[in-house]
Amino acid sequence: PMSTSEDNKQLVLTAYRDFGTQDKEKIGSYFAADAEWVAPERNAMAVALGQPAGWVGRDAIVRYLTGEIGRLFTGAKVEFLSVVADGDKVVVEQRFQATVCNGRPYEMIYCFIFVVRDRLIRQVRPFFDTALGFDLIFGKETPRQLL
């Protein structure tokens, strides 16, 4: 049976809650094997992690969500500002607050578009202020790999 917008919205919200568990198997169960996380090229997080922007495949996404992001940021807090679902798309506007591993405070508003089909997340497309990201993570320092 086709999943409704509301089903997709609930799936994304449940997935978010479970991202916090750091349970690789549970988190992986929300993503299609060939899921993609498409991030803006050369964003500050990618530079700090020393890798290309975005991740392809469930395993890479799970590694990011259960490892890399937790090494780059500590004390992360997510606040939902709005969640809107239409067909196979769920749009999450959120405030993310944390401390960067170099001690700098980080606060960013993100807009994520989740594409959900057959009860699996197929694609995640985050949109955010990439210039602000560099200011927050690196300040006046030259952007470089931090981990």
Tally of alpha and pi helices: 5
Q: What percent strand? A: 35-45%
Form type: globular
Strand arrangement across the biggest beta sheet: 2-1-6-5-4-3
Q: What class would the helix/strand composition place it in?
A: alpha+beta
Distance between the ends? 44 Å
Poorly predicted runs are none
Biggest sheet record: 6 strands, mixed
Radius of gyration: 15 Å
Helix content: 25-40%
Task: Round the mean pLDDT to the nearest integer and report it.
Answer: 96
Order of helices and strands: HHEHEHEEEEH
Count of beta strands: 6
Explain this structure.
This protein has 147 residues and is α+β, with helices and mostly antiparallel strands. Helix content is 34%, strand content 38%. The protein has 5 helices and 6 strands; from the N terminus they run H-H-E-H-E-H-E-E-E-E-H. The chain has helices at 5-19, 24-28, 44-49, 58-72, 130-138; strands at 31-37, 55-56, 73-86, 89-100, 105-117, 120-127. It has a 6-stranded mixed β-sheet, sandwiched between helices. A hairpin with a 4-residue loop joins strand 4 (89-100) and strand 5 (105-117).
Draw up the topology in text.
Elements: H1 5-19, H2 24-28, E1 31-37, H3 44-49, E2 55-56, H4 58-72, E3 73-86, E4 89-100, E5 105-117, E6 120-127, H5 130-138
Parallel strand pairs: 1-6
Antiparallel strand pairs: 1-2, 3-4, 4-5, 5-6
